[in-house]
Structure formats: C-alpha cells, structure tokens
Design brief:
By secondary structure, the protein is an alpha/beta fold. It has nine helices and 18 strands. Helix 3 crosses helix 4 and helix 3 packs across helix 8. Bound molecules: NADP nicotinamide-adenine-dinucleotide phosphate. NADP nicotinamide-adenine-dinucleotide phosphate binds next to helix 1, helix 3 and helix 4.
C-alpha cells in the first residue's frame, strides 16, 4: 500500500528521511482492527519523529501520522483515537507510563490502511467531513484537554494563546471562544493575527507585546520563545498550561514569579477516548470546525511537510490517500 514514512532520522534536516512509497500491508493482532484511511492530518509530532524525538532508529522504517478518519471493516465512518496503552491499563489512557501514540511504536496513519486496537475506533459524526474529523484526534484533542480538563478554563475567563496559527493553537482559539471564553492571541505575522481574529479571538498581539491586562490562563505550545512572556502575562494565581515546546524547551524557569504570584504550571498531553468523544459532540453541537490550511494527496506529502517546517501553515494540513 502507498504510505508516507520515516526512513532515517536527521535532527537538523528532518525532511531528509521522509519517504513516499509502497509499504507492506499491516498485520492485525488479536483485538485489533483495520481502518481504511480516507483522511489523515499532519502534526508537528511528525516533524519531531523525523528528528528522532519519540522515534528510535531501530523502529525504522515507520509510517508517520497520528490522526485518521476513515472506514471500519463494516464500512462505517470512524475516527481513530491515537493513544495506545498496554492491554492491562485501565483509566485515563494518557497516564499509562507505557502509552504511545500512533507512529511511535506502531505504524501510523499516512497510508491507505492503519491497524489499531478495536477500542481506539470511534464513530465519526455524519456532520463532520472526513477531512474535518481527521484534524481532531491529536491537535484538537490536546487543545480540548488542555483547556477544559487540565487548566479548568471556564466561560468568562480571559486566556492568552501563544503562536496562534498552529494546529493546536487554532483549536484552542476556536474551542475556547465557542465555550464563552475571551481569547487573546499572539502570532508572528499580521496575516496570522488576522486569521486568529477570524477564528474567534477577541484581540491579537505581536509576539511578546505587552497586554492591556493580565490574563487568567495562558496556553503554551511554543516553549522557549514565548515562555517568559507567558509567565509575565498571568494574573496572580493564574495558570499556565503547556503541551509543547516547538521553539525549544530550555527557557528560564521564572521561578520567582511562579512562587511570588502563586502561579500554576500544568502539563497536558493528548487526551482520553472519552474526551475525544466529548470533543466530537462539542464540534457538532456548537457547529465548530477545524481550520484547514490545505488538503493534499498523500503523494504531495513532501510539500505538506515543507510548509509545516517553514511555519507557513494556518491551521491544519490534511493528506488524502487515493481511493
Ligand atoms: N503534548 C501533546 O500531547 C501534544 C499534542 C499536540 C502538539 N504538541 C506539541 O505542541 C506543539 C505545537 O504543535 P502543532 O501541531 O500545533 O504545531 P504547528 O501546527 O507546527 O504550530 C507551531 C506553532 O508554533 C509557533 N512557533 C514556532 N516557532 C516559534 C518561534 N520561534 N516563536 C514564536 N512562535 C513559534 C508558531 O506560531 P506563529 O503563529 O506565531 O507562527 C506556530 O503557530 C509542537 O511542539 C507539538 O509537538 C504536543
């Protein structure tokens, strides 16, 4: 079957190891099932994999991709939950110490077919297209958990979303504003700030700009480049939720501000199957949809990865395998 995979690791030039070609059909262990992929979306995670973060050379070649929507073996429309746990694990899947997400230990979704444990397959609401549904299981699920489970953001609060154009950041903006939260964003270009306003942000600022007032919570995916600004932007008692560090993970900790202002710094990773189910319902009920930058054939994956690498993407890029 046709697939997009990592054939080698290069920390500095990640696209060197990007392969597009034929890979063997997946084998289906007991308790697993096959999904015929109709759409899959790119995440920054796929670039990290090509850089060797979370993917060791011993596991190569590895089909990339964490997100998919498609058809189950009975022809039902489905969405794939990407968090895989050990068989014995019960409860919050994200807390299993041996959890992985697709394309780390098991072959990913940038292919005509993907195999997953049966419990990782959820019904796709008919209101969502395959392209829209394929954006939800990683970036949107992470945003949902960050906002509502981990940071406990509630209607009427003001939050700051750093680096507004990213997959997770656009999800944060859309989900929070749909939930009655006042959303402020930063972004590095005028075009990206304008897009964030169109997605529901109330105000958009240049990266690092002084805000009119301090906020209740900050959503961090950028890391080093914005960390100090995030800490400085919080009210006393405020919350910084972090799920990524795209620009680097060694910023000054700003410990004095953390303890003097009694700030909470909270990590968040992916989301549970239950949270994905709630996210799907939320999208339907509130009529919110992922911002899709482009939908491209699987064969044009190189172009898609190049755009993500250059930071040119506004929202999500979707890859479509040939029917
Ligand atoms: N823990 C988890 O479960 C989890 C889940 C999903 C994602 N993540 C992580 O979260 C991060 C974002 O993921 P994504 O898929 O949303 O990535 P993405 O779509 O590639 O977005 C990257 C964003 O980072 C910002 N950025 C990059 N470098 C920057 C810099 N030097 N200064 C300021 N902003 C910068 C950009 O902001 P501008 O708008 O200003 O250009 C861009 O919007 C990644 O590191 C990813 O691995 C973690």
């Amino acid at each position: 079957m046709r697939a997009v995979y990592a054939s080698s690791i290069d920390r500095d030039k990640p696209l060197t190891g990007l392969g597009i070609g034929d890979r063997p059909e997946p084998t289906v262990p007991d308790g697993w099932t096959t999904v015929t992929v109709r759409a899959a979306s790119l995440n920054h995670h796929d670039l990290w994999s090509l850089r060797g973060v979370g993917l060791s050379p011993q596991r190569l070649p590895m089909i990339l991709g964490c997100d998919a929507s498609g058809l189950d073996t009975d022809g039902n429309e489905v969405v794939v939950h990407s968090v895989l746990t050990s068989d014995e694990w019960r409860g919050d899947e994200t807390l299993d110490p041996s959890r992985s997400i697709l394309s780390e230990k098991y072959q990913g979704t940038f292919a005509e077919r993907v195999t997953v444990p049966r419990r990782n397959v959820l019904p796709k609401p008919g209101e969502l297209t395959f392209e829209q549904a394929a954006c939800l299981p990683t970036a949107w699920l992470s945003a949902y958990r960050m906002l509502f489970t981990r940071a406990r953001v509630t209607p009427g609060m003001t939050i700051l979303v750093q680096g507004a154009s990213g997959g997770v950041a656009t999800a944060l903006t859309v989900l929070a504003s749909a939930a009655g939260v006042r959303v402020w964003v930063t972004a590095r270009s005028e075009e990206k700030r304008a897009q964030a306003l169109a997605l529901g942000a109330e105000q958009a600022f240049e990266s690092g700009a002084r805000l009119p007032e301090r906020v209740d919570a900050v959503m961090e995916t950028v890391g080093q480049a914005t960390w100090a600004h995030s800490i400085r932007s919080l009210k006393p008692g405020g919350t910084l939720a972090v799920c990524g560090a795209t620009s680097g993970d060694a910023p000054p900790a700003e410990l004095s501000r953390v303890f003097f202002l009694q700030l909470s710094v909270i990590g968040s990773t992916m989301g549970t199957r239950d949270e994905l189910e709630r996210l799907l319902r939320f999208c339907v009920d509130k009529d919110v949809r992922p911002a899709i930058h482009a939908a491209l054939p699987l064969e044009q994956a190189h172009q898609a990865f190049e755009s993500l690498l250059q930071g040119e993407v506004l929202g999500k890029i979707v890859l479509i395998p040939s029917p």
